[in-house]
Write a structure and sequence with these properties.
3 strands; 3-stranded mixed β-sheet; alpha+beta
């Protein structure tokens, strides 16, 4: 299904919006679960993986963020926890 004007599949824009919505949902859930202990939190969702980025003072907070993301994704997606403990 291609549009005549752009030559792009309109479903790809919908999937991109869904991934952005999921990323925002995960970010909010992590903020609540980790009680704001992850600074500069950013979540990136692609078709096959979720990447957590940010900074934390403790490994415990980093683990809380990872568990929160897994709660929302049922563990089906590949999850990369790139939160830096410093």
């Amino acid at each position: 299904m291609m549009t005549h004007e752009s030559g792009k599949d309109p479903r790809s824009a919908s999937r991109s919006k869904d991934r952005e919505d999921l990323a925002q949902c995960i970010e909010g859930y992590i903020e609540r679960r980790a009680s704001g202990r992850i600074r500069d939190l950013h979540v990136v969702c692609s078709e096959d993986k979720i990447i957590l980025q940010g900074r934390s003072r403790t490994y415990h907070a980093k683990q809380l963020a990872q568990e929160a993301a897994l709660d929302l994704t049922d563990g089906h997606s590949l999850l990369a926890n790139q939160i830096v403990v410093c």
